[in-house]
Amino acid sequence: MKKQFREPELLNILLMRWTNAFRQLTKSSLLGWVIHYLVGVFFMFVFYLIWEFMEIEATLLSGGIMGFAAGILGVIGWQFTFWIHPNPPKLDFKHYYVHLILAHVVFGISGEITYNYLNLWKISFLMTGIV
Fold it and tell me: Do residues 36 and 15 lie in contact, with contact meaning Cβ atoms separated by under 8 Å?
């Protein structure tokens, strides 16, 4: 079993094996990266809505918890994808899923840091009257 932990490459492999329409892809094709980043933007937008409109403060802890939750959703999504796929790659799923969850905890914490940095930037512009 191979340890393939790069989600964009894994997406490309799954697409290549799914249908002839994607046979021209390589594992490093742009499509996997675009899909991966769009999912990340979606999750970050959800985090933004939670921090902005719910009574949950943007802290390292809340970022880590939301990242963990996103990782669990990612595991569920990947399990479903591998289950319905006609020819899924052979992976070390235990290590892959642990890696996925930890990577999403880091993603959530990074999102929290960015959110707070941008809020400080926005506040400093509002205080100077530039915006």
Answer: no
